């Protein structure tokens, strides 16, 4: 087998009818995949805020490629990791494939459509139209690979490698793969399994003959034994490589399929919870959407790896893909970094949430979608849970329980070695009864009292009330059968059931599949207290495009609608912002998790200090981790200190501003009223009267200057490679100046192109595709794609400031 990077030399333009093409004057744009066609479109207040005010759109991707004459005797496949959405694939104008699900990987057998010995064409059509509750993007936003195989070959993507029996002395490795014979004669070949360690050395192997009938398939099963195995875990994500190759006699292998292999054992029970390799693990989880901030939804290997590394550095050990099949690149990153995965397939089944969502194809495509997810992802050691949905109303009735059972049975048939769950929101599961009660005035008034923004508006208006409804007998009865189909009961905003279900359902194992970010100080002790609760997944770990402003500060007297008005762009509810930098909530969570001894200081934005902030279900306090303010001395400030010590002291310069209670009894939070002064602000945490840690914020000194600081001084010339370059306003000591923002222009020279440039500003009117952007809280992020070997220079300039630059070396 030979694989070719098929990401280059594409064009994209609006999708129009064949008749409209006769008069089409718009010239298609030359692009390199992956590509989000929607992120560069103009936003408008007339478009839905859930999609970040981007328009609907239809796009056509075109490419020509040479097909050698010798491919006539080969099997040629195109492998798409994801096209959003309703992809239509045409090869030489012949219809080759349709893929409804915008997140599912799919393979297209190209051979029947090819013309050999000359240039061929491919067209991929994609579209988006009010089909998601978040920004979904559009186009071929993940990688495409061209595989050229012999007519006798391993079926693409169908290899399954498991480790069913592990102990300290050896690990049993079983590999199964279907082999297809598209020739006209029955063939006998040898299949060989090879296991290599991280250094590339062969540590185990097995081989056997296999006969495949003409025009048919046969399953090869091989078994090898790895002595004294290195086990994969969150703390030590050791990876082997497994490969099955086919050969005839002593000839060189003519086909091969490779996967990474993590040897690890999973166990699950209500007394010990989740165990990995015999050790109990609590899931410190983050829900994440699939976009990559300034890149839109375009998926690059380096973008996914950076995201997972930063989430792990922030204290998370697990992620939940909300609410879609994850990219291959992200799964590879999770394997490499040591991040556990809840792999989710759907946001809807048969009950609509958006006008043109995937309910319209669910009945016909769910088996295909489940197969695509599980067949690809079952070889990733990071994947421990498959989630079949998110807040599905059907989970509250017997017919929905039947759908759940069918989906879970399909998953178990494909992969019996991982567990199943579903993010069930009890409130949503009994929504039909809730609406009836609201209409009768039982829940908040008469028939006109229901919030206009839908289910999320109701959830946002009364989090405590919804939690109590979640523990009601009505929810207990209506969800029992759906939960019984699963290995793990996923509870969205249902922490009130943790203790209750231990009594009602002693064999039920629970995971907090989605929780309010501000409840972690309450939820995490519950997770630790109850062995049957596996962990907590906050909404969300990383800010995302769409569902605009659901985490914004809410002020008394304001319109409390769930979503903000244009020009809001992001949800503003992540522990990390869309550029990957940590917000105050992230440090609070790290302290609650018990992973940070030092306290943390967050300062209320002075311009909003006089306003009364209302508690928002997905919001955090209106704070910044900065003491670099352009204020008159003595200006009143509110300072929050997060600490797990039982007491915390705040110092302004050498002057103590007093001590307050902190730690678990105070919700890990102490507040101080401070008169501003341009001196160091230091928090000291004490435990039993002894200092346990300290943290200092510095004021800004002098005028700000530009700094350009690439996250790495070297980059690879490879598929998926990116260069990340933070551009900041700093003082003479390197302190980030958050109180003054400036438009900054950048210029790129050398073998790289700019693929994204912008800030984390949640209400941004600027686009991410220009070379000029305004800082937010003193920071911008430029993202470049290497295009060749050599030195890349990134130069930044702003009015009134000295220019700054940096270089990055790109090598093969």
TrEMBL record:
A GO molecular-function descriptor: beta-galactosidase activity
Keywords attached to this entry: Glycosidase, Hydrolase
DUF4982 domain segment(s): 634-691
Enzyme Commission number(s) of this protein: 3.2.1.23
Domain spans labelled Glycosyl hydrolases family 2 sugar binding: 59-146
Single biological process term from Gene Ontology: carbohydrate metabolic process
InterPro entries for this protein: Beta-gal/glucu_dom_sf (IPR036156), DUF4982 (IPR032311), Galactose-bd-like_sf (IPR008979), GH (IPR017853), GH2_Domain-Containing (IPR051913), Glyco_hydro2_dom5 (IPR040605), Glyco_hydro_2 (IPR006101), Glyco_hydro_2_cat (IPR006103)
Domain Glycoside hydrolase family 2 catalytic: 274-426
Boundaries of every Glycoside hydrolase family 2 immunoglobulin-like beta-sandwich domain copy: 162-264
Superkingdom of the source species: Bacteria
Keyword Hydrolase: yes
Pfam family, one: Glyco_hydro_2
Keyword Hydrolase on entry: yes
Glycoside hydrolase family domain mapped to chain residues: 706-806
Assigned protein family: Belongs to the glycosyl hydrolase 2 family.
Name this protein carries in UniProt: Beta-galactosidase
